[in-house]
Batch of 4 targets.
Target 1
Amino acid sequence: MNDFENIESWESNFGLLPIKLNPTQQVDRFLMLNGGLGDFCLKTSALGEEDIKNVFQESWSTNTKNFLFIDKDHIEVTNWYDNKTEKIPKNKIEFNINQFYKYLSSKSFKTQNDVVPFVLDIFRQLRNITFEKQDSSEAINLLFYLLISLEEDYTKVDVEKWNISTSNFPDRFEYFVELINQGVRNIKPNLDLILRHTAGALFQEAHREVIFFNPQRDLFGGVSSKLETKIDAYSSIHYTPQYIARSIVENALKSFDLNSEKITILDPSCGSSEFLIEVLKQLKNKGFNGRIVVKGFDSSDSAVRTSKFLLSYENRKQWDNIIQIDIRKVSDSLVEDWGQNDIVLMNPPFISWELLKEKESRDNVLAILENVVKKSRPNQATAFFYKATQSLKENGIIGCVLPTSIFYSEIYSELRNKLYKDLSFKVLAKLGNYVFEDALTDVSLFVASNSKSILLPKLIWTKNEKGIVQDTLREFRKMNANNEQSINNKNFSIYIPPYFPILKDSWKIISLKENDFIKELDIYHKAGKFSAISDVFTINQGALLGVKNVFKISSEEFNSIPTTEKKYFRPVVTNDSLRTGKIIISEYVWFPYDKNGLIFKEENNLTGLHFYKTRLFPNKEILEKRSGINNWWSLTRPRNWQFIQEPRLLSNRFGNSKSFGFDKKGDCVIEEGNAFIPKKEFQTTDYYFYLALFSSSIFDLLLSIYSKPIMSGYDLGKIQIKNIPIPNIHKNNLRENGAYLKLTELGKELENGNSFVKQVIDDILKSYFYPKF
Amino acid sequence: MSDYLGIIKEINKECKVLFLENFKLVPEKGHHNIFVYKIEGSSIALNRYNSEPVKVLKWFKNFWLYIEVKFIVKKSKQGNKTIETIHTNISISIYQGNDNDEMKIQLFRAEWDDMNDPNEKHSQPHWHITSSQAIEKTFEEYSVHLDNGEFISLLENVKAKIIDVKSIHFAMNGNWQEDQTHIHSIKSAVQISKWLRGFLHHIRIELEEVNNFA
């Protein structure tokens, strides 16, 4: 039986974070937060004689629709938008918790009458008439005045108390003041609730408005409220969605000792202080009594003003002004002294090296990373990340969002190794490309403490699709509240891996399903069912021709050269030649080599050749310039193993299961790819067996685990794939196995272009060789 | 004329490498002018509006397949001449169910009929979506046992309000964007085997995707 009066039961059932509506005055009224859609207000007792007007005011001002009251046998759901109250029997909800939440969410859709669009609409109109006279930070200052007018006479505002600047009010400002004070549908805005619970969403939107403002008069020359906001999908400064900030703060505080006497909290790229407000809110909720120092840096003037306004308000209303606030406008946060901190929270600027225009900014990034990222072009976020970790006190906590490339890119491997040694990881999450509304960046979440711990981190994997992350983080909260160990879902998984990193030199986060597959693979491997690819094959890199458009000729040109010269050419396998087991030849390469090496030792021996006259000699000057060659008419790196013609499996340099082929005669020359040469003697059928294996979706899965993603595939080079476990035809009497025979047959089908057999190849591999996935 | 255009031979050849289990269309004894070939299956399921039990072949995971090819020879007189026309019906059904389920549930059928009819109005080839039958059947069984059929009448009321979707011939090859028709006649065995191969490949990807975590 659910105890609905107990607020914790709501957390464990719904995965929502309960925050007191007003911690200093009310003990039983909560805002149940997920981060937008699905949030609602809740009182743990009955509606009773309460004035419904106040109830609607509270839910409207907190940017929610529903306010729930817990009665003896019923839950009363009031909804300001529908203007009604429903009584739902508790026993109905008891067994349909998920449906009930879905129902509440379905009645929580965003409307133009919500508090954020309402305030912004007024702000936009105000901006429109005052646009020419104002810069963005003055505009934000006017928004503060508009909001303050809900509580005070705006002409008599104490600017020190509110920590704002003085403003010259534009004409008709009074009109906008009246407009905001009227509210919507007789619901008067409640400033305290707006600033405590809605400020994040409101000011992020307001900033977007003032930064990307595009003024337009409407058709009749009047003030339009439908101004277009400039959208830049690749902008590097991304606002932190509320639900992300909330989850990061929650998990950071979970690992922090709240009995500390004093804590220092830093956000080195604070924006409008989404993280700082959130952490103060959650500290208040947890009853933290110590002293607090809050530091925030940002290069945007309007962001800094907003931070000062909101933090001062929070400090005055909830903390009796005991918080020491240090918000600074800086030109580059990276050169500032960040001091030593107990908690660092941040969403650093995701600016790639290429987009860092100023040399000084680049130098600042390099200076910070000089010992951990060498000879490369790091993202600015990496410098923020590293500097943040170095600014942590002992047992200090870092919680941040990061570009996912920091988790796996080779250039950051030294940084990763150092941090894994120095920090104790708490939560790592791969959130994907749909986190920032205004950007397509691949985002991850990271929480760690500067302490020694043998505990392994919790990993969160999400499918890279829109709308999944919010649900995942809600489930994560639910899971923690219910002390569950793992969740495996179609769209996400949350679990503690048996070891970390799961993959060598990478913090790549894989799904629980993939993780289970790896565990099983390991068992199979130990049982001798597999060998590493490098135990079965020598993997050789293909030829390097040297100069573009000299040595290669098309099939038509090949057909037209004298027959006597044809023997100096070989079919060349390039990126376009391999199609799921089939080799398609459209070009030939000058390859004057036999088993003893270069056939033409002297230039004189070549001069009679048509190819010499038409192609080689005219390019002699360019060809001679190549370093590391003895004869200008030779290829730069022909690869000696290609002198001998013998059967080989071939692959592209980058690709996937579609990028393999079998060169039965061995007369092809591979360029931009790899050749797989058996270490022990092979029968022809063995090649077909491995061709089928390499062309399967199981092999794609193995590549996704073992190799590095590049372009829309993987690096198929020796270093990346050498440890992939495969059946070894020299062991376990494999050739006598019926599945072997079937796979060789299917390998032949692939060679002939029948890629439809891929699915049955997978069936066989799953049934007879690999663990279930 | 028991294997019109060599369709059966071609399908058997093509599908031999597409299944883990042995695939073979085998002839069934029948009427003198009707030649029916059915897949050799290992389990039982109901085909076509619950009326006809058939043997289905295990495909992958818990999906099963039934293929039936029928040639009907029609003779007609034109003056003194006897004209012979062939009607071809190819029907492929996909079922879902565990090995030990008594009956598997039919999800949908893919069909290609060529009646040599210049006035053909249905799409050829086409889909029939049939999975709702299983849900209806469950409700019906529940209702008979537990509420004396009250629920059935409710269900019937709803059913009466909407059309019977399973009877619709959903186009499979409506290449309208290229100004082509959605009605295609059967011309060769290779055409059929390519269609079948593509059909199986495509629908398996879809089934795997949907079934992955279901």
Target 2
Amino acid sequence: MLSRIADALFWIGRYLERAEDTCRIVEVHLHQSLDDPTLDEVQAANDLFLLMGQPADEKPDVLAKLCYDEASPVSFLAALGSARESARRARETVSTEVWESINTTWLAVRGGRLQRMRPASMFKFVRERCAVISGLADSTMSHDEGWLFLTLGRSIERIDMTSRLLSTPSVTSNSQRAWDHVLSGCGAHHAFVQRYGALASDRDAAEFLMLDRLFPRSLIYTLNTAVESLAQLGPSGLRIRPDDPAMRLLGAARASLEYLPPDEILRDLPDEMARLQVVCTQATQAISERYFEGSAAAEWVGGAW
Amino acid sequence: MSVLFDDYPRGQAAYDEMVGPDGVRPALRSVAAELDRLGLEEVRSRAEYLSSVYIDQGVTFDIGGEERPFPLDIVPRVMQADEFAHVEAGSRQRVRAMEAFLDDIYTEGRCFTDGVIPRHVVASSPHFHRPVAGLITANGVRVHVAGIDLIRGDDGVYRVLEDNVRSPSGVSYVMTNRRAMNSALPEVAGKHRIRPVEDYPSELLKALRAAAPSGITEPTVVVLTPGVYNSAYFEHALLARMMGVELVEGRDLVAHGGRVSLRTTRGLRPVHVIYRRIDDEFLDPAVFRADSLLGCAGLLNAARAGNVTIANAVGNGVADDKLVYTYVPDLIRFYLGEEPILASVDTWRLEEPEAREEVLDRLDELVVKPVDGSGGKGIVIGPRASADELERLRRQILKDARGWIAQPVVQLSTVPTMIDGQLRPRHVDLRPFVVNGGSEGIYVLPGGLTRVALPEGELIVNSSQGGGSKDTWVLTGARARQSQKQARQAQRMASPVPLSDQVVDRVIRHQHEQQQQSGESSC
């Protein structure tokens, strides 16, 4: 597979997941500010910006900045646009149906259309479109190298975003229902209540989102998916450790989460999550060095001789 | 008789393909009747459906970096079997002559010594590239794909307007148009026996594989695109996908040691045939423009070494030169010993003093074109031009007579087109696509791209100048219609499975390998 195409597929995966997760994070934030009358809205919004790596603002406009402002790099509109642009570059590789659904999604949200929707329907729309696209990708593309890169991108972005979301309750730890919101932000509320019952503690929630082996958005599940994709992409039947730095990074992160003593889970949560975000950045770097470097533009130095 | 075509203007100067002076032409009555049965309202709503389909599918072309949907009109252009047979034979003949001509000028130059065409006409063409002199391709084909622009004047005769043997575009719209029309007007399409266009990708792939360097049994074919900002990017992607080959950009390729490879996630992979959609000048910075980032340095060297085939061949632009165009009828007689099947448009060579004088006198009634222009660029239509424009043109001609040709204004034929909910005549041209597979034979795509100029009275149909397109239906012969049942049975027996030849190839090779293996084990 062409390096350039692999690169494009990896980023389609990342951007789509980013759009979906940003959408969920903003939704949680809005619910939180409605639920808690004591909340300092400006402070909460700025905390959210900080979480997304954006500078604080005197009059933060969460909806514009994170949702429909095309100029803002963290808005999910920008993410959808970038996904569409990547898909256009890899158009002959992604299946027709996937391209069409990415394209129609983009056409439905661009040019201020998103802004005109009510926030609730906007969130629903974006979440559903993302689900449709990834469903189509799963069922209409061969699960070959290209699909593995798509999955890999999606998993790494999901780890990154989930870890950001998991840092929210400690930021606003005075809120009683913080974990409920985080759980719904991961789409995990129902699954969690089913498993633990309605009387579960904060630690149970953290444990579920980090370590549940069966819930597809938990950190451990996603890390597993990423590591498996990398294992399939690399050479098989290695005798010693994997030769892929990205795989070592993700594997090590998985192990350190998995073997964390149960009572330490909540104590170090922000640090642990920050470390995980660094791992995501490093792993992306390693993957692009190993697989995409060939797509860097070569320059011909000709001229007078 | 016909609701849709009742108030359609008749007896105009231009030839109308569907409506003659006495109403709808007899051969097209069934198409008109089917459209009538739907009624104007329904046809309008189908037309709206067509445009929404194209936006969703992203069937677009770029103008100045902006993606626009390609307008597709609801009324098809219909060609009779014998009408198309004439076009087909003529296109084939022209491609054969072009092949012979290009081969000749880059090798022996018989046409010069025999005085068919002056040497300076060829040598002064900006598209004559000395770096490819003496380069002979693996199967002798240089024009792998040609798109010959045809127009029909007021006498209804098909005339060649220009030859495109560099990298003609538009074929993707032929395929998407057909699919969209079949879903928009299934009632009308279903009532007629229309020759299919879906074979094009497999015919193209067959031709490209046949052009592979000798000794390569399983060639890697790629489509080389300038990138997403090219106006025809949609087409490049579609062709690559339908042929099942990689779509590459210049930066994906690397040339080393006279070979070309692809940068993949598993290292470098050799490439054998490059169907390039990049102009010659940008193809190889080591030979042509040194500032081009679109191509790949060393490509031409690899082609000269015979390790990679560039399709279409470098240097084909000479045959597109509009001054050379005036010699094509002579070239056909010279190389093929045949009379030209397709007529040409009368053309003045401005290099010749008498011709130049006459043209300068009559600038305001002629069409003057730059010889190496494409896409309608630089064309001056005398009757429409202002005095200033004509004066500027006169100075340009006097300065560079080689750079221009003049033709009479040809009234392009018209076809009914949906404009603001009404059917109105609009000018069209036709670009049939020809794929030359060498010993595999020459394939002519049934129909071709019909481009339509949407503004009223506009004669330039180019898509970059606000043109749209129409689906082109070539009906099968009368005999097939008479015995439809038999024809259908015959078709079922010879079902056109795409790539069937390759499958057969693979089966044969597989058997061969098995034989070899069993041979070894018995030793």
Target 3
Amino acid sequence: MMENTENSTVGLSKLDLELAILRWWFFSHMAYNYQRMQAGGFAVMMGPLLKKLYPHQPEKVVAGLKRHMMFFNTEPRWGSVIHGIIIALEEQRAKGKDIDDATIVDLKSSLMGPLAGIGDTISGGLYKPCVLGICLGWAATGSIMGPLVFAVCMLGYDLLVTHLAIRKGYTLGTSAVTSVLEGGLFKKLTTFFSIMGLFVLGIMVCKFITIDFTWISVLAGNKVVLKDLMDKIVPKTLPLLITLVSWQAIMRGVKVVYVLLALFAFALVGGALGIIG
Amino acid sequence: MIEAVLVALLGWFQSSSMPLAWWLAREPIMAGFWVGLIYGKPVEGIIIGAAINVAFLGWNSTGGANPSDLYSAGLLGTAIAIQGNVTTEQAVVIAISLGVIGNYAWILFMSLNSVIPSFQDKCAERGDIKQLIFLQIVPSQLVVILVRAIPAFLAAYYGPPIIESLLAAIPVWGVAGFNAVGKVLPALGIAMLLKYMGRKDLLVFFAVGFAVSAFTGMNNLLFAAILGAAMGYVYISLQPKEVTAGGAVPIQEPSKEASLYEGEDEI
């Protein structure tokens, strides 16, 4: 890479990195599509950086842009560790280090899956539901605290994690990923949020699924209220049963839409017959 | 009329695909609040939005595929419910139905946008960064206006009277069935979330939560979260230290997850 020696003085400033983070944060999904997913967002983030790294070599900027227009898709917050690493690699490359195209492209495509797994689990499966769980409690009573706290918690989380992930990826370069994957922190974090989330979820079954038996039968002149009977054994049995059956159906690969339709039909018939309500 | 235009604007903003839109307007809890504000009934808006949101608790758009459309369910569900004077349960049913239809807007958005990268490729070829950024930001917004804002306007303007006359035509037993549906559907949201969270070894905490609430009637979720966090902390503290030492165990976890949900856009 002799031709790169003239660039040995170029480098990225803190501001460049901050602007790149903001570009990714704002624009990553604006043209989200089936063809390339987040590729456009990635190229938008890299573009100005490439221009800075290769001020006098437009052909290298072109090559870089093409490199980053390749299919890319990850969870936008935790996954942006990749962005930090790639920025660091591109900078080293511009400075003359021997890093080839394949390394950069392979790194991107091999990391996007695992990091999406981490990100989805934490953001979508654990953090958001926990915040939502608390905020929905407030919102159900009409309190402004619900939307307010939700917005603050989610926006703050999104901005903070994206920011830290890119910065961390940038400073640690390739070693970042191993530290994330092998540190044991990930497992601890998911375990913690799973426990908290599952506990809250158990309570939400009782709070939000308000269906119950309404069937009253007259046996030998005595009114038998099914609900009272069930409440003596386990209260809220019906909400729990419906939840567990739906969950098992989804786990066994039944499409969510079919579960939805089944619930729809079950409740419509049950409600119309006066058994549940 | 003005309200419907504002709902359309909100429909555009919530689908503009950036974090500000995701967290300030996309989720039904937020959309409900804004729609309520537009119609001068913020408190009702929050309550309806929250009820709809429960059914979408486990909503996760994995790899660009949606189970149902969170966007239109929250926005249009609240807009129609607030104007049409329906109960909260009925609002949930209407919202879920709208979500199933609204999913086509999402598919359309993703499909129409698929043209954009081809043009961005040409910009890359020329090294035209400015044009590339422009293509990322602007054309997709036109798509959003087409598939989200305009339908939102039509639904907010013409929807309520249609829904109202529909509800008026349904017999009493039908309304009972309809209301029961609204009470049952939140189970779907919780079930979907259970799929994400439900690690076998930790399911006992779900059972504990249910038992505590079912038998004591305790349903303060903030209190529950604090209790849950404490239990989580204790559980982790009691784990043997070896998990952190070897690399093998922690590595397995993310790669297993990755195969479950490969690549995701947003939550």
Target 4
Amino acid sequence: MPERTQTARALRRRTPGLILITAAALYSVVPLLSMVSAALAPQGTFPSGLSWPSDPHWHNFVDAWNVANITTLLKSSMLIVLGVVPVAVLIATMAAYAIAVLEIPLGGVFYTVLVLTLTLPYEIVIVPLYEQTRAMGLLGTQWALILPLIGMNMPFAVFWMRAHFAGVPKELSEAAGMDGAGPWRALFHIHLPLARPAIASLALLMFLSTWNQFLLALVLIDDPNKRTMAGALQAFTTKYSTDQVLLNAGALLIMAPTILVFLVLQRHFVKALLQGSIKG
Amino acid sequence: MRSTKSPVGVTAARSRHRLRARRWAGWLFALPALAFYGVFNFYPVLLSIQYSFYDWDGVGASTWVGLRNYTEVFTDNEQFSSLLHAFYLILFFTILPVTIALITASVLRQLQGRFTGALARTLLFLPQIIPGAAAGVAWTWMYSDNGVVNQLLRAIGLDGVTRAWLADYTWALTAVGFIGTWLSTGLCTMLLLAGIGKIDNSLYEAARIDGAGPIRQFLAVTLPGLRNEIGVCVTITIIAALASFDVVYLATQGGPGTQTMVPGVAVYRLAFNDARLGAASALAVVLALVVIAVVVPLQRLFREK
């Protein structure tokens, strides 16, 4: 049967790929699955590797929710994200608009400086930021994280939005000018609606990096309950380092919000991250 | 004759003046970004450079020590080895993920997108989404005495090599490295897959007609076609390796001993455990210079044409 041999050959050709992708997918999820299996073991026991418990203790997650203060942490993380992302997106968009569309004098210099600092690691600002936020009396409050993160986001955000504005035809702004629209009206009525996809991707990337921010949260906010989820993980692991069950349950809860948002907005996340890497 | 400037000229000059004023007024749009960037990013970088020349505990007076903090970066064992460790991590954060991603992506190309559907994409991408700190926790558990890694080794009869990997003097840094591999592989695979999709299929046809096997096709068509994407993967993962902090801090805090000390953790400890802000700043400046010294030539190397 020629049809059959064809299918068999196609299948044989696909098998290595199938095995490969399965292996890669397993490699991605096994660490998370092993956390789930440990989180479901009875508290006070020593769970072992990857094994489905005969009697899963789902209640561990409730206990971990309480001891890790997840409610407080969620509020704190959201406060920080809401403080950083809208403001950073707005002012980066305005700056990119000024540089690329209004062609402000010395805008090119500003842009070059931004791009030059794009790859600098957070480590180089951490000590001065600590001193600055302390001098401003903000150390230990969420402001100590919100304000610096807006500043740290500027190089990438302006770079991203400028790339978008550079692709918008010049005639569009000229036409707006002819119709008597000032720069504000042109931005809000003509450019912003067009920039919506670029802005959405940028907001998604910034949400992720803010939510996952660790170093700045650790240094600038003493109280783990005022940090981001990722920053609070540090305090939680030190406190429960001997209790594998609660530790894994708590860590999973701390990861859960990003994973949920990712699952819902999956396509957009992948697109944004891929674009983000290419532009960055 | 110089007094008879034509009225037209006056208007033109005035409107040119007004135009220039209007262009400067555009700075109002850029001002908030400039302010935040200046105060919380650019100025701190300058401050760090300034601190790096001083001996300062953050409370008392600071004393100018010239380049002493910098000579310490290269003579103090803990600081200098942290830089070497960062370079060793490139093997795991960059070279392994890019190699695996190249193989996976070129095999997947032949599957014509069948298995690159939502499920595979979601699973491969997952490590990219979670915080590095959480990856540190997940892998601390994987590597522990009764974790999955040892469980697997026992299952294939290698009981003799099991150990608490992150506490092992010889293996801890390599173990940390594989966490980086786990974090970077998914993004690289998806990036290269997207790039491979853009390569003109006729190039593969032509290569096949010329008698090129899969390996030759890979070398002659895929690799050059992915130049840009490979450059992107290499750049972002090298920066992640050199500036790594959260993964290492949560998995090992630099230990055992200083076996997994990386510049990020060393900067943190110098500044916030030892209160040596000058020394911390000097190491941070060196780290930033290393990142630039590695990234700039890479950008040139991978730029198309």
